[in-house]
Amino acid sequence: MKTRGWRACALALVAASAVAARAGAADVAIVKSSEVAAWRPAIDALRRSAASHAFTEYDLRNDRATADGVLAGLRGKNFIVVAMGPLAAQLVRTNLPEAPLVYSMVQEPAKLGLSPGPNVTGVAFTIPIKNQIAAFRMVNPKGVRIGVIYKDENTGRLVEEAEKAAGLLRVALLAKPITAEREVPSALRALLTGDSAVDALWIPPDPVLLGDETRRFLMAEMLKAGRPIYASSSALVAEGALVSNAPDFTSVGDQIADLVNRLASGEHGRIEMLVPRAELVINKKVAGRLKIELPAEALKAASKVF
Fold first, then answer.
1. What whole-number distance in Å separates Cα of residue 8 and Cα of residue 115?
2. Which of 50, 191, 287, 306 could anchor a disulfide with 283, C-beta 3.0 to 4.6 Å?
3. How many whole angstroms separate alpha carbon 58 and alpha carbon 43?
4. What pLDDT is stored for residue 110 in this prediction?
5. What pLDDT does 17 receive?
6. Can you spell out the DSSP letters for 213-256?
7. Is 240 in contact with 221 (CB distance < 8 Å)?
8. How far apart are CA 199 and CA 196, in angstroms?
9. Which stretch of DSSP H or E encloses residue 145?
């Protein structure tokens, strides 16, 4: 009888634990500004680290009409929203003000009204730009003229910071602002020709540059020109960029998961923005193709070498 009683007690405890675990589970809407391949490690890490929740992904396709339809479908539902990219974060905050929000992949959250507060928090998407440029110079010491194409509303402030940092690091930054993706080819031609031709191209985390077609175009044209790409993520290095010094996207996903778990458990006060770890990633094969001699100190400092 005693054994039976202990078994019954144990079963009751297991059942109670299962109910408690389920009570902490939540429906999570992952709302992406667009489908960016470089973000997938963060999403995969989020799903692994917060596996008790139910996830649904939504792609806004960087299109306002698509976004309006997606967000209308979420209105009034009990979701924790993970917004990835500036368009998603801004529109979720505006259109779903009551929804618990975790933002990520946003360069300047405060500029979009995303300061941490009740039910609003996020994960930083950058490390100091001076550190990034210093890392690029360490990997490719001869690359002293760096070109960058960007859309002002997406990464204009980041490029301004990069211009200031470049002077301190004895690097010249040649910036070409564009207003639409279709202007990328002409901007790249301008950076690769004439007396002001650049030694390398920096691709900042700007959605206008990260679509599949544009990204592949930049990779192919820079390889054809015999000059490297400095990237905003390790995923781009795997695709053919020379180097990145950027947030580790797996770390980003783990931290998003932590914030989702905290919101799901009922923590509704101010939760400060988290900062992911950084990683230096180098593509040694690309360096060989471009005849770039990688310094030993750069290889030693790298988190990952392809």
1. 50
2. 306
3. 12
4. 87
5. 38
6. HHHHHHHHHHHHHT--EEESSHHHHHHT-SEEEEE-HHHHHHHH
7. no
8. 10
9. strand 145-151
Strand partners, 55: 28
| Identity of the amino acid at 169 | L
Q: Measure the CA dihedral 184/189/190/191, to 10°.
A: 90
Distance CA 221, CA 219 (A): 6
Tally of residues, the chain: 306
Chain segment 53-80, per-residue pLDDT in tens: 999 999 999 999 999 999 999 999 999 9
Return the structure tokens found at 246. Answer: 């950027």
10-residue mean pLDDT series, the chain (306 residues): 46 38 77 93 97 97 95 96 96 95 91 88 90 96 97 92 95 97 97 94 94 96 98 93 94 97 91 92 98 97 96
Q: How far is CA 113 from the centre of its chain?
A: 19
Number of CB atoms found within 10 A of residue 207's CB: 20
- The pairing of strands 278-282 and 243-247 is antiparallel
Distances (CA, A) of 189 to 18, 57, 77, 183: 60, 37, 48, 10
Return the number of other C-beta atoms located less than 10 Å from residue 295's C-beta: 12
Residue 285 pairs in a beta bridge with: none
Beta carbons of 42 and 252 less than 8 angstroms apart: yes
Q: What's the gap between Cα 204 and its chain centre?
A: 10
Distance CA 154, CA 293 (A): 34
What is the enclosing helix (H) or strand (E) of 297?
helix 296-301
**Alpha helices (H) along 107-248:** 129-139, 152-168, 184-192, 207-210, 212-225, 234-239
Burial 129-143 (b: 16+ CB within 10 A, else e): beebbbbbbbbbeeb
Quick: pLDDT tens for 230-280. Answer: 998 888 999 999 999 988 999 999 999 999 999 999 997 889 999 888 899
